[in-house]
UniProtKB/TrEMBL annotation, chain A:
Keywords: ATP-binding, Nucleotide-binding. GO terms for molecular function: ATP binding; ATP hydrolysis activity. InterPro entries: AAA+_ATPase, ABC_SmlMolc_Importer, ABC_transporter-like_ATP-bd, ABC_transporter-like_CS, Mo/tungstate-bd_C_term_dom, Mop_domain, P-loop_NTPase, Transp-assoc_OB_typ1. The keyword Aminoacyl-tRNA synthetase does not apply. It comes from Prauserella muralis. The keyword Nucleotide-binding applies. GO terms for biological process: molybdate ion transport. This is Molybdenum ABC transporter ATP-binding protein. It holds the Pfam family ABC_tran. It comes from the Bacteria.
Automatic annotation (TrEMBL), chain C:
Keywords: Metal-binding, Signal. InterPro entries: ModA (IPR005950), ModA/WtpA (IPR050682). CDD domains: PBP2_ModA_like_1. NCBIfam families: modA. The lineage of its organism: Bacteria, Bacillati, Actinomycetota, Actinomycetes, Pseudonocardiales. One of its GO terms (molecular function) is metal ion binding. Belongs to the bacterial solute-binding protein ModA family. It comes from Prauserella muralis. Transmembrane segments: none annotated. This is Molybdate ABC transporter substrate-binding protein. It holds the Pfam family SBP_bac_11. GO terms for biological process: molybdate ion transport.
Amino acid sequence: MTLRAELELSRGEFALSTTFDVPAGTVLALLGPNGSGKSTVLGCLAGLLRPDRGAVTLGGRALTRTPRVDVPPHRRGVGLLAQDPLLFPHLSVLDNVAFAPRSRGTSRSRSRELARHWLSEVDAAEFAERRPAQLSGGQAQRVALARALAGEPELLLLDEPLAALDVDAAPAIRGLLRRVLRAAGARSARATVLVTHDPLDALALADHVVVLADGGIVERGVTRDVLAAPRTAFTARIAGLNLVTGTAEGGALRTASGGVVSGVPAPDVVDGGPAVAVFSPGSVAVYPGDAAPAGSPRNSATGVVAALEPHGPVVRLRTEDGDDWADGVAADLTPAAVAELALEPGTPVWLSVKAAAVAIHPVGDEIG
Amino acid sequence: MLWIPAGLALALVVLPVAGLLVRTDYARLPALLTSSASLNALRLSLVTAGASTVACVLLGVPLAVVLARATGRGVRVLRAVVLLPLVLPPVVGGLALLFLFGSNGFLGRLLAEVADVRITFTTAAVVLAQTFVAMPFLVVSLEGALRGAGDRYEQVAATLGARPWTVFRRVTLPLLLPALGSGAVLSFARALGEFGATITFAGSLEGVTRTLPLEVYNQAEADVDSAVALALLLIVVAVVVIAVARPKAVEGRT
Amino acid sequence: MKKVLALALAAVLTASACGTSSGEGERTLRVFAAASLTEVFGALEQRFEDDHPGVDVQLNLAGSSRLAQQINEGAPADVFAAADEASMGIVRQTGALTGDPMIFAYNRMTIAVQPGNPKNINYFTDLQRPDLTVVVCAPQVPCGAATQKLQQNTGVVLNPVSEEQDVKAVLNKVAMGEADAGMVYHSDVVSAAGKVEGIEFARSSGAINRYPIAVLAETGQPDLAGAFRDLVFSETGKAELRKAGFGTR
């Protein structure tokens, strides 16, 4: 079901105005800092908030059309996965997941059957008889995902689903979301909207991204295009990432030209599968001249300074004519360092980045 | 250093009760407690306090939900009004009920004309008075719990396709159970001890309106030993209710 | 800080416990009197303080049996004026009195009805009518005991809707229109000043309350206590009592 949304809403100082489509079977990431209006958009889609003006249609069915149409949340066919799992504490895990089918009038035994299916889809079948209080944060979020999916929503809303998880649990849930969104999404032609402030989430999960700032859209497009080559300084600041494509190989990335980028692989990286290495401009070290830096980190390569531009408190350097992955890479330096190293366009440089600062992600067909 | 005021607080509660235990005439206790006046008062107290607790739950739960969920300026005033019976002297509450339900009161006259029903001096008046003073306890404990929980669980339930009534029945209500349990116990205890509003509004007649506290007061006029014995009975009932029912209510969520 | 708080609390508790002690150079006379004597003894208090400069009369007004209990529990009192001899007897049997109690006033039972007597109640036997809402005092208090005695003497059986703990409660129930009739003392009807009407009935002499007064043995000031008792028996005292609807000797 394709989602179309046109929303206008103001609350005091804050004014929101957005328009976007989410084609059936795809994932749209709403990326933006806190207070940019992401959660407000999600509230309007779920029917928990009412826009001042606007329309939301899902597969041609009007969910909102001001001033007359406002379908209540329980009849929208949406599923919501929030930052906190919000599992009903008085119900077992199984009955939590069976809640949506039960609410639709499905029999108790059939609902439980469905719940077991969705629990196994998220690798949480073993928790079925537990109480939510007996689950870890990551386990609870798995169950919450199963509960949202069990409603078989035509529109799935993910509100910072990884933000409350600790760093150990987040990669596993991110991998799970990838798998579930990809597999089930293609099958049921469901539209998914992901709200996040973390470009990594957008990169891992979304086909398209909309960048929100102060209630308005500043940039939109295919996720990798937007994140790798931001067209606005704002997007660059919050989402400017270095992306290197290639093939996963032994926990590292083999580039098309045969080089290797070492990094930390996501749990769902498959050897030989398409993958991408991601690192922030701030993690790239720059050395002048053509001598290899002392102590040589594993990822180092040569390039030529193509451009230097001020970027908030730092100067962002962009390379050209680079060796292997070092072509078109962004690196952030202090103005003092730029002066000290006498960097200017045309200066040859060595670039290096620590393996620990590089994330290796698998890339699906839709995203690729 | 907390133990000094804590000890004082405990002493303030325990010592008077201990004094009561010391004063009790244990030889006459069985006879005093099994007199028909005592048994009638005990039975009436349990029946009326139970009935008013049910009334508190039936009326107080919706009120607490409305108060916790509503926004706007009027709600603060409304909340203050609901808590009024907590600060009003019970006798004043009894007078207020008399002015409403009495033979010259608006509702009292209406009921007399339409249904030929008199409220004052009846057991119903006792239940009404007890409900009046006990309701705030239920509403306050519930509203606090509701505000603490927020409405996020309800929102999730709605996105899962649950109709508002289903949300209330399957999410709001079960989440409220522990608070509902302790609120109901508090209400029952308050109703059990109710005196001022009852004697003002309902009067005092054995088997009809003379509850345990009224019987204690009545006996104190003539026979202190008998009053002490009855007070002991009242304490035992209250302690049993609080000790037995409360943990159950709290554990109700697992 | 917490210790200071605790000490302060203790100090407050102690101070309030001793709150009845009088100021320097002033003597206090504690008079325990039946609630029905409120108006009379209020006037006599004023009179006594005028006649005895430096003396503060403190009135403790409550139901007679409650006052008797308070005295027996050790409440400091100099004079006790009760509404019935039974209450005085409770104190007397513990040997707490100096001399014998003396009867200073009489009060007879009256039927209190709403002004204008809308239910047309004229005799004690009328109170048996099923259409009437009747309120009486509980048998444990003097006005209830008197009512019970009346029923025994007359053979009339009342079916009250409530047995109140004191006569003022009965009076209020009638004054507010909740009850059609109530059994009260004649003095209560007088003090209600028009809010109720009193129906005198022939057999009321069968239940006359006699008001005894006595000086307590515990008193540290028998002279002052005696002077107050004398004031009650004086012409001034009798005038006040009669004004309030009591009978005197």
